[in-house]
Predict the structure.
Amino acid sequence: MTGGADQVKAGIRARIGQVREELVGLSRRIHGHPESAFEERRAAGWCADVLRDHGFAVTAPAYGLETAFEATVGSGPVTVALACEYDALPGMGHACGHKRRPRRAPRTG
């Protein structure tokens, strides 16, 4: 690992640490308000709001899905794309673990 890559990783870890409580709160909020597939309007909105609050330009809806959004920040030759699922199972809520994934997406910024 080069020194530059180590510095980038350290910066990412530090940033995640700064927003950890917000991300855990987002995860709990999504978990507390389960929405079925393609009905996750609140969850998508909450995730988009967190990203907007941290300087991302958010386009919603996106890609022909009412519950999808695109969030971009910065510029340069590197592009990172993340796909997250946060739909709940009918009658079971978030028993499958999808709720953990959106918490990871915003912390990549």
